[in-house]
Amino acid sequence: MPMTLRLPEELDRALDAIAEAEHVSKHALVLQGVELIIARRGRRGAVDEAVDFVLSHDAELLRRLEDA
């Protein structure tokens, strides 16, 4: 789906510099950035679920370790 992205001049210049150094288009860099954000949020959700699981299933053990 087409999308217009308007960046402040400073970000656009930084993106130009990175794209040139990486030998890729600005479009490719923006896609990489979006993919990184999505992956990070997915990992954060997985970590939150793991912590919730440990806290709910090992509450007694955690209390005993706290007192040790």
Descriptive report:
- With 68 residues, this protein is mainly alpha-helical.
- Helix content is 81%, strand content 0%.
- It is built from three helices and no strands.
- The radius of gyration is 21 Å and the shape is elongated.
- The mean pLDDT is 89.
Model regions low in confidence, pLDDT < 50 over at least 5 residues: none
* Fraction in helix: over 70%
Mean pLDDT: 89
Number of distinct helices: 3
Which percent range describes the beta-strand content? under 5%
Kindly, what is the distance between the CA atoms of the first and last residues, rounded to a whole number of angstroms?
Answer: 58 Å
Shape estimate: elongated
What is the string of helix and strand elements?
Answer: HHH
Number of strands: 0
Specify the structural class.
mainly alpha
Q: For the report, how would you describe the main beta sheet?
A: none
Radius of gyration: 21 Å
Key terms:
68 residues; mainly alpha; 81% helix
Helix/strand layout:
Blueprint: H1 9-22, H2 26-57, H3 59-67
